[in-house]
Protein 1
Amino acid sequence: MSTVDRLSVLKTYKLFVGGKFPRSESRRVYEVTDAKGAWLANAPLSSRKDVRDAVVGARKAFGPWSGATAYNRGQILYRVAEMLEGRREQFAAEVAAADGVSAKKAAARVDAAIDRWVWYAGWSDKVAQVAGAANPVAGPYFNLSTPEPTGVVAVLAPTDSAFLGLVSVIAPAIVTGNTVVVVASERAPLPALSLGEVLATSDLPGGVVNILSGRAAELGPPLAAHQDVNAIDLAGAPGELAVELERAAADNLKRVLRPQPGDTAKGDHWLADPGTERMLSLLETKTVWHPMGV
Amino acid sequence: MAFDYAPAPESRAVVDIGPSYGLFIDGEFQEASDGKVFKTVAPASEEVLSEVAHASEADLDRAVRAARRAFGPWSALPGAERAKYLFRIARVIQERSRELAVLESLDNGKPIRETRDTDLPLTAAHFFYYAGWADKLDHAGFGPNPRPLGVAGQVIPWNFPLMMLAWKIAPALATGNTVVLKPAETTPLSALFFADVCRQAGLPRGVVNILTGDGSTGAALVSHPDVNKVAFTGSTEVGRQIARTVAGTDKKLTLELGGKAANIVFDDAPIDQAVEGMVNGIFFNQGHVCCAGSRLLAQESVADELLDALKRRMATLRVGDPLDKNTDVGAINSAEQLARITALAEASEAEGAERWAPACDLPSTGYWFAPTLFTGVTQAHRIACEEIFGPVLSVLTFRTPAEAVEKANNTPYGLSAGIWTEKGSRSLWMASKLRAGIVWSNTFNKFDPTSPFGGYKESGYGREGGRHGLEAYLAAAGPQEDRAGTSSPEGDR
């Protein structure tokens, strides 16, 4: 028997678009390294054409996903947590390399990410009761306000928390019925691309989450200017790019989540209780009036 | 036998309009620093009503400084005290409602019946509603001790001048912000009278500042570096410019913009009620309503019957003197708006749509446009896509509920929609599919201070009214760890 060490099988990282795993249509890749500069993988270098495909996938998925029952969406988010639980070691290793942290810290971040899916799963059938209202109008009318998802949301994921940060911006968007096109951390996209594999096996309909890797400066502008995108979360956009994208987003009056000071902070910022603001800011309030009478 | 209407004019004597008005800054009326003025006219007669100051950049600076100075003490007041000021304002408006209704009809051109029965009651009610929130903000769902933003720069349109002022100022003050408000160029008077209401209510100086001027004044206000919050109601085009202007700043922005609402009539709808809904939807306030039902979607099987009934009803609309209590449709607000409506109507004829309006005598002076409808309209016609902001209805048809949803949603706007059907399950299904912020089912153009108002998509963002309306004027509660450390905007500068 040979004593030669077994050569490991490396993964070809691919995009996650419309429920499928394509390479970039541009056939470009870029080198991804760990914090010490060691080669990890070649990630797809997505193009603006990939952005368009991803938006098409997200729009197609929006009707069915927003129309699914809240109970159903909640179960699917919980299923994501279940699938991740079985892959904790894989993600801990990827996060350690991506975030440049110890194995222990990486494991804590993965656990927090799994727990975050569970937390948001529970929100699916409660958010309408918290964000909606029965309005006592001064007249004989039944008047009810309910939150509805904004639509297709573009997300520039946090750059320095490649997995926990990513989950913290995807889950609050999709739990209420939005669909997303997310640009993974440019420097550390691998946990995001692996998340696609988890989502694909969690009963999440194809197109609800679309994950692109590449340059934020290249993918951000076509997303911000896209007429069929309803909102943009700039959590991972560096200062000047964020301003440029916010300005471009005004063209079709996208809802804009500006980057908050904590979003780009290194360390364990994303471990904190996320609160409800991110989830609530990707909702529209619909108010229905109906006369009352015999 | 048919009866004629006798003239039933409301008296102008109840309102005393001064020959000129200054800017209301820091609790006092002041002339513009460069002495610039402009005239405001009655659109029904083209009579000059008054001359008002045109604010300069220096005036704007003074107003923002006054609001900044007032912010500290105002936001530090116990909520219960702020509430009492707002209750006082609501009461004074109720007391002066006849005077203000006449003033609004004169300056805007809208019928006295509407200012008396809609604008003024809703204006007072809005202050009354938000007054009660001022000392209950801890219970509003925005976390403990939610903080105001600071100085709010507010720009309002000419279609409901005083009501839009209330929608902006009432929640801003209740939450502890101070205000610099710019009324529309063509309807400055009721905001200036409101300044006097503030005086009577004893509101501390600088809490509300009113700057009159034109679009450039509004643009300067929203881009002023010491404004923390921008609220705008108006056209989508200007809304876009404002969104670009505030990009990269910390200013919180809410926009209430245009619409192209579908009013959808199914074959089981009570026709007479639906016709009243169509008329109320597009001819209320001369169609100068962002949520106007400017597209009638009629189910094919009832389209002819509905159209006949609608035309009969339109022939009974009384167009003319806004101060006549029998008037249904008043004057178009300005020569510019009349030109825009006329141009779009003519373009629609050129595109092949068929124009119809009842025989109707229009006054010889002033700005007028007869209630009009277009049939043979396709979704590609400009009149089916562009907001007309006038008394012009486009008629389209559909066969199935799914087609109605498709057509209703086929617009970049998403402000409102109407559904007319006797079938409850269909009504609720439709309401859930329409991408619009307000859905009126078997009614239309109803408003209430407790009921959130605002749009999807390019109709803007944020809500006015209800608990939801508070959010626009409160600092966001971030992740839990940041919340405790959140300081007031004033503390940050």
Protein 2
Amino acid sequence: MTSVTSTELRAQQDSGRKASQTREKWASVRTYISAAVILIWCLAPAYWMVVTAFREVGFTYDTSPWPTHVTMDNFITAFDTSFGNRFGQALLNSVIIGVTVTVVSLVIGVFAAYALARLNFRFKYLVLGFILGASMFPGVALITPLFQLFTNIGWMGTYQALIIPNISFVLPLTVYTLTSFFREMPWELEESARVDGCTQGQAFRKVIMPLAAPAIFTTAILAFISSWNEFLIASQLSNDATQPVTVAIASFSGAQPNQIPYTAIMAAGTIVTIPLVILVLVFQRKIVAGLTAGAVK
Amino acid sequence: MATELGPAPVKSPASGTPEVHHGPKGVGEDNRILSQGKWASWLLAPTIVALGIVIVYPIVSAIIMSFQKDAGLDPATGLFTAGGPAGIQNYVNWLGQQCAAPGGGTVACPPGTLGGQFWTATGTTFFFTVITVVLETVLGFWMAMIMARTFKGRGLVRAAVLVPWAIPTAVTAQLWLFMFDFNGIINKLFNASILWTGSEWPAKWAVIIADTWKTTPFMALLILAGLQMIPAEVYEASKVDGASAWQRFRLITLPLVKPALMVAILFRTLDALRMFDLPYILTGGANNTTTLSILVINQIRQGFNSAAALSTITFLIIFLVAFIFVRFLGANVVEQSGATGKGKK
């Protein structure tokens, strides 16, 4: 009797362990299936863009999932100016606008972020709220007066007409991303530097700036990306000579007026996207920290 | 590395919790705040001045413009008129969908004119906002839950979600336009023959699907950051207490991730309310996919002052939604701290 019970008991325990093992196995299988679904959902459209970019024009709508009819022609077509596209110039414009906006925003914003992260003063939360609100500001609310102003002073289609409005959303983004990075830095070092006889300004320049470099670099990437992606303001205030890539790609025309030159557009899209994707993947951890910094802290 | 995602106190910007780097309270605190205040105002001045120029100035001039008549040909006399003060007429025209009538006064805008599209555009904007934010929240939450687990290849998944985010919206729109083409991959894949951008509902869903693809990763990353702030011990303790997976989700994950989730939803909602690039390129605003932003842009070349009135209305709508959200958020933060007994206020 006793022995039977103990075997039964052991059998029961065994099956229990087995059940929990199977359950764990199933859970991990489900995780991998879900992960695969996320991967496909996120990457398939981007993959399709790249595959199409390398396809011959005659096979634009080919549906084989791997590269077929591979050619580099589309990249040449993308830079071709004979159909009124100025993609090469647009790339240069985007770089000029993006770099200027990023540098200006960082130079101005780094001081504000330092004050917001480090100093105690009245109206601090009012200022933070104002800056956060500014970053959520709708671009259309700015465009009408700027359109009129720039028309009146002859700035339409100039670089400054594209750079100044971009600062309105890149600067707030810069300030609050830097603020949350700065809050997490080892500020005791600043105190030590001041004990050793540095002024607050010296402590900032000699001790804090080198430490803050990675944070500033990450913020620069985020600032550059958001300026690079801007479309609304550029679509209204630029002309053929100053238009950035987003506007160039949106209005890409081909040889036939009624036919959208998809393969060339996908090639242009690939050129615009690949550097960003590489940059983002290399600095993945920092970028994610910077992206989420404003939201969770 | 301090800047990596890791456990840190969850703070909502809306709640304004004053617990960041307070020096020790005591004698001299007032003096310190005064001297720091002087420093702070110097450091903040460039940013405040810059934002004043690029944001406050345009807003104020938009409001002033919105109370002016548009210069143009008078439909009654055929002569050029210079505008002049309009009172609230521009606002009345938009909200009542009234257009200037020949011979003075106003009549209901004929269909097809911009003036007659205000309420449809408002409806479309809110429709897009609600559907995309709900889809992105649900999908983003699911993605975040998966990415929070430990498994081989987790780094790959976390990197992959950044790809749609990094692609410029203009490129995204062209890419989806290509995939939604009649001969495109989506129709082939589902063996369908839908003219996606040719009629109202397919066009709307094309915009929604493309937007969801592009911005769900951002949502997932924000929620993931919130999830990672929940200490693992809480889950272990609840497992010991015999809580089921559903109970753990409902009673631990959801309430603890709520502040981060609400902020993510607020960001996305405000972003969706100003949606422009995607429908503008994907459908050109045809088939009732014109959002308020597109309507403003279409109006600009027909009359600055009227466009300024519309952009001010758009701004007020977004401001109102943000205000409701922040009040709602604030209320929840208070409620939460009260419930756990850890509230500092």
